[in-house]
Every structure is written in structure tokens, then in C-alpha cells.
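Sharing in case it's useful to others searching the archive later.

Someone asked me privately for the predicted structure of Aminotransferase, so I'm posting the question and my answer publicly. Question first, with the sequence:
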Amino acid sequence: MVLSTRATQAKDAIMTVSSFLAEAQERGNDPDALDFTFGNPHEMALPGLVSAMQEQLEPRSVDWYAYKTSERSAQEVVASGLRSELGLDFEPADIAMTQGAFGAISLAFALLADVGDEVVIPVPGWFCYAPMLHAANLVPVGAPLAPVDFSLDVGEIARAITPRTRLVIVNSPANPTGRVYPKETWDALAEVLDEASRRHGRRIWLLSDEPYRRIRFDGIGFASPAGSYPWTLIDYSYGKVLLAPGQRLGYLAISPLLEPAERSALREACNPVQLAIGWGFPDALMQYSVPALESVSIDVAELTRKRDRMFDALHSAGYTLTKPEGTFYLWGRAPGGDAATFCRALAEQGVFVMPGTLFDQPAHWRISLTATMEMIERALPVLEAAEGMHRQTAR
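And my answer, the predicted C-alpha cells:
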């Protein structure tokens, strides 16, 4: 056998996603393709992103582009932003700058989990959790979300925990459902994790996956579980709020509520572990740009307009949908309950959406709202006709 067991498991777990990504990249230069699969930009980059990088491009010292770990200036800006957003006393040393949320999640796995440890993940949830866990020789264990409204089911998480559980991953605002979970949910989860940690004689950690934290609708507030459960790490990516997933910038943050000895141990481990797992730091240019990028954002008002246009039209056409409270996705049930067949039929008409099979939900589908309004208007008649055809067939 050429491949390691973990490489084979990771490849098999991510195969559907990688195939989908390759197809989306092939469609990238087709002006007629109505591609709503991934959260990619369909308009030119945000001016603030471009100007921030341009301002830092010209070297100001001979070591401007030397090897970089976590730049102090970036850590200070992130810690300040977190103090403002979450009301917790983060310090620069609590922040490890990473190559997007991918890098932060990989770092969290390396810091906390040993080979064979179990990690509880939400279902439906981000399709890269399981492949990343397999690649790290860890065991993904699914915990279903509530079946109707896709709220976080704390009882299901409790049932998924075993003596081998080391980590639980939560995601709010959630991909693919768009749900934003309240503090009451985190308080309830904290009780479950604390009790299970005592029962099994081993601390269960929480990884709060928050790349969509700044993309919320209708004035909905945000609470991080880091404020409810001290044994929490936060991962974040700038790629979502900047709508620039190709520029890898993110961080892993340690909850300041953690007891001093554990907080210090994690702080001291981040830098050497990032070196050990393959230089897991953002490029110099991206780190220098952090102070300016903290105030740059996708137009959430325009995104809200796209959400409302798409949701209202599809809901009126008869689709069953979850109205997103955050993220830039719309999640719904496929007509007839067969998402793969539904998505293939749309693709034949030039409209590309993501089947729920990528999220272990074969009856559902996801559509990205990062498309232009012109794309949405062109796609709506096709989507409305597909639901109408299903109703006629069902009679």
C-alpha cells in the first residue's frame, strides 16, 4: 500500500468536496455559469483589502520578508478586537496567528489531542472537520443538530461523549445552516462538558469555530462559548468577512478564563508546535495588514438584501428553508428529498448549488449568497421552475 491509513481515510472523506472544488474552479472563467457552490467572490476584491496589502508591500527594513512567526502588532490588534467583541480580557500572548481557520484548527488538534482521541463534531457541519481529523489520526464522532431548526442539541453532544473524547467542536454562526446560538446554549453545554470531564477523569476541551462571527443579520447578537467554558479555544478566519478565502489569514485564541497554569502552557506551546506542524504562520504581508483589515468587511447590508431576495422568492415557490441568522449561505430541503438528483437537474440548466451529501444530509442543499444580485435574478426562474415541476410530478 502506497498511502498511509490516515491519508487514505482523509482522502476518502474529502473526495466529494475536492471533486466539487475542481469542478467549480473549471467553471471559474465561464461568464454564463451561475455558481452558488462555494463562498467565493464573484466581484472584484474589497478596496480596503487591496489598499491594506498595497500599503505594506514595499519593504521598510531588510528583514521585512524574513521568516515570521506571530507578529506582535497583529496579536495586539486581534486581542483588542476580541476584548471589544466578546467582553473577555484577551492578551496578545493568547493569540497565535495562523494560515486561516484551517491552520488554527490544525494547531488546536496538535496542541490538545493524541492519536486515537475522539472529537465530537456537529452534523450537519463543515465538511472538512472529519477529513482533517482523519489526517491527524483522530476519530470524528457526529452529534446531530436538532432535526427541525438545526439548533445545537446539547443532549446529543452528551450522548456522543465517551471516555476517549478529548474535544468538542462547535460552529456559530453555523455552516451550512446559518444558525447563531445564544449564550444559554453555551451555558448548558459547559455544564455537560464539565460533568463529563469529572466523570471520565479527563478534561474535555471545546473548539469554537467562529469564521463567520462578524457576518450576522437582523441585529442578532453574538456570544462565544469562551465566555461560558474556560477550556475553550477560538479559531477565526479573515477570509469570510473579507470575501477573500485565497488570502490565508486567521488565528487561534486561548480563552482568558482558563486557569493561569493551563493558559501559560498553551501560550508557550503555540509557537514551537506551529513550527513543528509545518510553519503554520500567515505570510508577512498578511500579518502586517491586520491593523487595517480589522475594519474591512463585506457589505452585510447588501448581503442581507441578497438573503431576503433569495429566501422570499424560494419560500414563496414552496421550498422548505432555514432562514440564516448569519454566514452567507441558505440551507433548505431539496424537492422530493433527493438533493443529488435535484442538484444535477439544476446543473443541466447552468445553476450550480451544493448537495447536502457533502454535509451527511442527502435530503438538503446549500446555496452561497456571495453571488451577485444579477446571478441571483438569473437563477431564480430556474429554481422556481424546479420546485414547480416537483409539485406537478408529486400529484
